Amino acid sequence: MARRRKRKSRRRQEGRRILECVPQYSIESGEDKPVTAARKFIHAEGIAPPALLLVKRNEHTTDRYFWAEKGLFGAQYVEENHFLFPSLKVMLESAADKIPAVSASRA
Predict the structure, then answer these.
(1) Between the ranges 11-15, 26-30, 86-90, 103-107, where is the mean pLDDT highest?
(2) Is the pTM of this model over 0.70?
(3) I need a labelling partner for 90 at 20 to 30 A (CA). Which of 2, 22, 46, 60 fits?
């Protein structure tokens, strides 16, 4: 039996592209739970939002968190709802300014 491909959400793909522009930090959770390790790292390093934290739970699992002005969020939620985050809107607009617009007019 043939497997169907999972449909990729355009909104989530756009959110993923936006998150690629955000600074990323990779850490290990150690004895703490991943979200606790992320919060401790943010506090210890004084990281300013926006930032993406990749927390390695074990050799197989890495949890992704987004550090925003309003707190710590799961990266998948942010990918799907990137329009709710003002810091990502600013990054999206600045990225759009750098990329020249393609005109659709023909002579």
Answers:
(1) 26-30
(2) yes
(3) 46
